Amino acid sequence: MGNSYAGQLKTTRFEEVLHNSIEASLRSNNLVPRPIFSQLYLEAEQQLSTLEGGSRVDNEEEEEEGEGGLEPNGPPNPYQLPPPPEGCCTTDGFCQAGKDLRLLSICSEPMDVPAGFLLVGAKSPSLPDHLLVCAVDKRFLPDDNGHNALLGFSGNCVGCGKKGFCYFTEFSNHINLKLTTQPKKQKHLKYYLVRNAQGTLTKGPLICWKGSEFRSRQTSANACSSSLFLPLDSAAALAAFPSDPTPGSNPSIAMGAQQAGPALDHPSLTTAASPAVFNGKESPKHQQLAKNHPAALPRPLVLGILSNPGPPKKRHKGWSPESPSATDGSYPQGGGNRAKCESAGVSCVPPVGVVGPAPVTFPVVASGEPVSVPDNLLKICKAKPVIFKGHGNFPYLCGNLNDVVVSPLLYTCYQNAQSISRAYEQCGASTIQPISEEMQLLLTVYYLVQLAADQVPLMEDLEQIFLRSWRESHLSEIRQYQQAPPQPFPPVPGAAAPVTSAQLPWLAGLAASSCNDSVHIIECSYSLAEGLSEMFRLLIEGKLAKTNYVVIICACRNTAIDSCIAVTGKYQARILSESLLSPAEYQREVHYELVTGKVDSLGAFFSTLCPDGDIDILLDKFHQESQGCSSSSLTASSVTKAAALDVSGAPVCTSECTQNLDLGSFEKVDFLICIPPSEVTYQQTLFRVWHSGVLLELGLEKEPVTKQRVEQYILKLDAEAQTKFKAFLQNSFQNPHTLFVLIHDHAHWGLVSAAHNVYSQSDPSVGLVDRLLNCREVKEAPNIVTLHVTSFPYALQTQHTLISPYNEIHWPVSYGNGVDLYHENKKYFGLSEFIESTLSGHSLPLLRYDSSFEAMVTALGKRFPRLHSAVIRTLVLVQHYAAAMMAVSGLPQMKNHTSVETLEIAQNLLNAPKQCPSGHGLMVLLRVPCSSLAAVAYERLAHVRARLALEEHFEIILGNPGSGITVGKHFVKRLKTWQKIEDAEWRPQTYLELEGLPCILIFSGMDPHGESLPRSLRYCDLRLINSSCLVRTALEQELGLAAYFVSSEVSVEKEAKSKALESDGEKLSSTDNEDEELGAEVCFEAGSASEKRSPVKRERSCSQDSASSSRSSKASGSALCSETSAQPSGTPQGEQARSPPPCGPAEEGRGSGEKQWLRAGQGPPASRLAPQPDCSSWTGQRSLQLSVTSSSQLSSSSGSTSVSTVPATSTRVPQASRCSMAKACQQPPIVFLPKLVYDVVMSTDSSGLPKAASLLPSPLVMWASSFRPLLSKTMTSTEQSLYYRQWTVPRPSHMDYGNRAEGRVDSFHPRRLLLSGPPQIGKTGAYLQFLSILCRMLIRLTEVDVYDEEEINASLREESDWHYLQLSDPWPDLELFQKMPFDYIIHDPKYEDASLICSHHQSIKSEDRGMSRKPEDLYVRRQTARMRLSKYAAYNTYHHCEQCLLYMGFHPRYQLYESTLHAFAFSYSMLGEEIQLHFIIPKSKEHHFVFSQPGGQLESMRLPLVTDKSQEYIKSPTFTPTTGRHEHGLFNLYHAMDGASHLHVLVVKEYEMAIYKKYWPNHIMLVLPSIFNSAGVGAAHFLIKELSYHNLELERNRQEELGIKPQDIWPFIVISDDSCVMWNAVDVDCSGERGREFSWSERNVSLKHIMQHIEASPDITHYALIGMRKWASKTRAGQVREPFSRCHVHDFIILNVDLTQNVQYNQNRFTCDDVDFNLRVHSAGLLLCRFNRFSVMKKQIAVGGHRSFHITSKVSDSSAAIVPAQYICAPDSKHTFLAAPAQLLLEKFLQYHSHRFFPLSLKNHSHPVLSVDCYLNLGSQISVCYVSSRPHSLNVNCSELRFSGLLLYLCDSFVGASFLKQFHFLKGATLCVICQDRNSLRQTVVRLELEDEWQFRLRDEFQTANAKEDRPLFFLTGRHI
């Protein structure tokens, strides 16, 4: 009632409370008036007997929502606002009197608050960002515990001051809340308001309304439908609320179970809500809540996890939010990572904790009298009924609670379906109503009616039915908000008019009338209690024997219904109740039954079945007859093996490292592989790593690698793991330049969070994965990359995952539909192929179920209801095996006591070895998940085998994860013979080594842990797998055991297809360090593609061909590794497989948009350093997928590195017909499944998607919403991943659960990768390959491709008497040097296609020059060599190291914006105008410049003095012209200069300024004027030189004022290409007086060393140009013998701008401008000196540079290629104009087609073309003779030469008629005059009197193919008369 703090009625307020209660009752829209006092709160301590059965409130008091303001669970009552009074204010945020109520507006204003009133903030739906201030009587507000609030309302308006509002409805109208639902103070009064220190009113704590203390701390799951079912681990996260429970204060509730039940049926706690709610963020208070201690309750005798429906849908007196939720206390989280199958499937009720054999759950919400469960219910009914709470209230149960199970699953499903429309509400579709309760129940009845007798209801099916029904009923509205039309659904029965609660029982009965009483409807008139009592009565009386489902409906109340559904069918009830058990509880239950001897009754029953008496007696008799030995019958002790409990775990991710991986900072790769605690998997991985050679390739070990050394790299996740892992972390910390790859194999195992699990301390392995892999050290270490590898990645693909979708690799990769990438002789068999083969009916199906076995199990299940079905199934199957063996061994009467399937297995097992000369046999895999039962099966079968004297015929092996393999000596000997092993101590340690051994492998353990099986596996008997646990991961994991590669003959056509990938991998055009950016995906795919190129056909399958891999390393001479070429680790399973996705509905890569990441640059990997056994048999594994796709689409590689197929290949062919093992290679194993699993696997939806694929993906996750699209069969693995990332959230027990605690969306870890692929497909090999490629990438990042070409025209050197013979001179002697002749010949190999330059010293024969290359070959075919970068290399933007951080400007002190733009202008007469340049100068570089004042006008660039001597800096400023290479240009000279101070200026075009500034923020930029945007390198050189001379003048003037002579200012600059990467010096050892004999060596040196050496040269200012050799690996002694040459210099030149003042670069040139300039400098009488003892290496860069210029047509739609012949045309013709500079067209045309102008010159080197004042490249087959027209210039003596042509290019006034007349021409020689326009062309002809000697024709005039606005060049040709 209106309770005081003492729990007593407050009499003084009683009248008011009563008044409010009556008023609310009258206001209710119920026809039946409700009890007056139902509104008054009662404390939770009320006795059960005092509860009123019918006390339900109507919709006005729907449970209050939390923060999100979610809609009520039931269909909301439409609420109409009363019309506001006329003339009043209706503005949001103001009261009707027009006064502002918004907190932000009035927070500082004084307010009159009466005594006893508090200021609170109300939330208005129309103003989500504002709180409205209200004054409310605090008696109507709750206390801190959410209690003691009087019902009703009393409040004042703080705006207008109006007082005395007694109804919240009236008050909400006054303050303009404008609600669409019934006004409730609990819903809209949200926060207390408090004044801060400044007196300002601010938002204070939340008002703790009843129940909202729970709900506000987590996303309300009912409303956001975060899961299908109650996750019990989620309950554990909640624990109890921090209130002190009072055990025992509730005597009426049996065993205190009421307190123990979780007070919630919210399926999700803080897991991500649907987008409508919190946008995927957790509510803020979650964390403190999750940490609350579990309820400190005494554990009840029967520890159940009480499936508690939680806070009542309506307010109920018996429920208090304080009721402790003791799920934590009652749920020992054992191996819960498989079957906390809450949502798993088959109705998956939440797990029930069990200590004894009696799972029991208690409902929490109840009304009415308790219902007594009759005694002996189980005994009479032969099954425990499972009761699903539906709508409304559920009564209490008492009495024999052990014999019933109550589950809230259906309730949760109904709640989720209520929230379906929320997604559409986001679009504004407020009219769409959720599906009504009546319709939900009716649809449920329809669903149950159509279930077959052997089917079990699945919640997923029901959800889909609700979704389809709802979508159909709202089709038109949905279409408005949905772009794609919804898929057609089968019609759902149901009237168009809504079903009323009165019609419901009748309609349900009508629906059930057709089902032969399998569904029974019970209608109650008062409450569900009477219906339940009626059902129990009918069960006891045996009247429901044929009934599988009882639907109880109570529709007595008008507004809502109560309902529940009881599953009474023996088969269904057994499966549903057993599905409650977690794996640990299941094992405990089975163990309990075995230990207590309950199974003895079953054994006794078996003995009665055999007509000849007990089987053991028969066996003994048989044994005595055959051997006369005494009997030893099976004793009870043989079934008392203890159950090994699987435990697993993992903790919450906390810190987030934002550093991305910079591969450039690592020198080597190390790794650690973490695997589940399975000895076989450990040995298997050990062997694969050992024999892959990866340790040698990574340089981690030296030959010979011992097994002990390999063990350091593999970590078994068991109790000892922590120590080894600490050593790994320490190692990573001590080696920051080593990249450590932490490989988490079988990564779907053990993801339970240790932090969540309260019992984790008792078992150190629980949560181990999380404790190790998610520890802070791993997450923050910048040199640790975590690679998760799994076939079932679903648990790592949730809304909270740490792995970015871009870091997922689905392996093998598909390349496209046209290419078959699996090996020609292999065919991959995954689940889809199994299904297809079964459906196709061409042969015996590969997937089968055993109907007679199932029938016997079902019959025995009814006879022994208290035994777990796993126990029954196991003992029946073992009995069948025993009978089958006896039948085959000579007791044919036993055939009747086994099934046909088991008999077939036994016959083949025993007969196969007899058909093979070597005795090869088959393996039968018998999967027994429970270790206790596996031990029983092993002992029983071993006993039967011994009695039948079959010990020598086949082995029985007990495969337990915790222990190794035990094989009898006789069989070990046989294996050693087959595998040619001579090691006396050898024992098989992996299943793969059992190849060919006839055996039954009893494979136990709740989950397989990645063990690979041999090719001799013939039968995969999965009849005992836990069929009640239908989760996709669990199902696929079991079926994955059978996945297989089979040998198949494939047509030759595939050979041709496969060549598509055979590109030349080793040499890619780019060798840049941008490879650092390659993701791991590249590594995986490049590796596998390289295997594709391997020349040897791999026959060994991934899952082991006929030989066991282990033989490889043994000391037998059989060379198992015949493949010596490209197999780095035998790993990526051969040829890129187009394999199935990791089990999903689609085939990977079907989408055309899949990226092709194959990079030929990775190249074929180097061959392995170690012998390769059948690596692939190790690397490869077998695959499974759930899509039914055609076999042609699903192929995969076999990927083995071994060609040998032992036993001896010579005998292989003849054996093929007889040897069972040879047959096994050509057909996949046959799989036997439980009927239930078979039905799930074989059934598909309308799209062809197997039902199994749409199950809950993993037990550790739950669906984010029922309202989710179905998976599609055509989805790729990538799309599937995105689907799960959107629609699943981790449970609280999942290690990723806390990942988004901060609500950040960018919570991916930058160094987490996920490799997924079908099982047995070869992922181990793939990640070992990944390590190899990663290692090679690191090496590759320290390597670079440099041009390696010999000098050309070496035989044409000047025949001169003058050589520089002072071989040991460090610097040139000026006098000697001046006497040396200039060598006109170009020796730089990049000018191989350029015209020869003739001089009088040469005698050239035409055969001396080779044929010219095609233009497109010019770049491609240049030779390169791969060089390791030295410490003195120049780098591009991808290089980052500690030292150059400052230099590059990526440093806090130098922000990117800290650079300034300075204009710098100077006049130049030749251009006839002022040149305006811009400098971008970073703050850190301003000391190199002179300004008029700080930050003022730029005046000059500082220059040092000639006399300066310092080792600390380089005197010459370096200019690097660049275009298109902002990323790849080598501008980082920090290491090249060895840290010395230097001035480096990048010369860039205006349009590229911004991008260069972004990449090189700390570099000085010289920005060329915009008119040079389309110019070539000549313009940049021209401007650099002119600017430098102008600056020299400015500096001379400035420093002259300081008393320094002008000639003392340093006049040199460096002009360097942007591809100069390293510099070398030659050390010469001279001996003898003349130094004729000498030796030399070349070493890498810094550019600082070279520059300081050259700058220290004596008389250096007398040299105009200084350069150095281009490096070549084949440099001959003759080239370095003379230290200095007077010849052309290129690429890296030191230019004296003072001496060359009057010699200019041609600013129009695009090519050969350096040759042209060299000739001008020489003809001006200046010295060019090349230091032959220094060389520069140039890196091959595939982008930018001269490749930036593309010649295209101006006509946009012209797609035809343009050839050089089209670069010129006749003037005024209708030729297609080209979008390219005229000068470029001219140069390119002359390079390829100059023979059109100079036909006589072709290959006529003794009669060259005379070129005046310029050098133009006329192609390699035409020689030119360069002459300068300047007075006093040095020219070749041409008196004896007769020229074959004359080239006059833009000739100036120095060229006159008299100058030309001194040259002699052949008759018929041709002339070409080139001018800027036609007018100047004519003037030139007249001025030079050309018509005297040359004949011209009108048609001999041409122009470049430019439009007039592009200023074409014109030329005229003529013939010599």
Description:
This protein has 54 helices and 53 strands. Strands 31, 32, 35, 36, 37, 38, 39, 40, 41, 42, 43 and 44 form a twelve-stranded mixed beta sheet that branches. It has a seven-stranded mixed beta sheet with strand order 46-52-53-51-50-48-49. Helix 47 (1553-1559) links the parallel strand 36 and strand 37 (1564-1567). Helix 12 packs parallel to helix 15. The longest helix is centred in the last third of the chain and has 24 residues, at 1577-1600. It starts with 13 loop residues before the first helix and ends with a strand. The model is unreliable at 1-12, 30-76, 212-366, 483-496, 629-659, 815-822, 1050-1217 and 1415-1419 (pLDDT under 50).
Overall morphology:
globular
| β-sheet strand percentage | 15-25%
> Structural class per helix/strand content?
alpha/beta
Helical stretch tally: 54
The radius of gyration computed from the alpha-carbon positions, rounded to a whole number of angstroms, is: 44 Å
- Low-confidence runs of at least 5 consecutive residues: 1-12, 30-76, 212-366, 483-496, 629-659, 815-822, 1050-1217, 1415-1419
Q: How many E-type strands?
A: 53
The major beta sheet can be summarized as: 12 strands, mixed
- Cα distance spanning the termini: 128 Å
Helix content: 25-40%
- What does the average pLDDT come to? 76
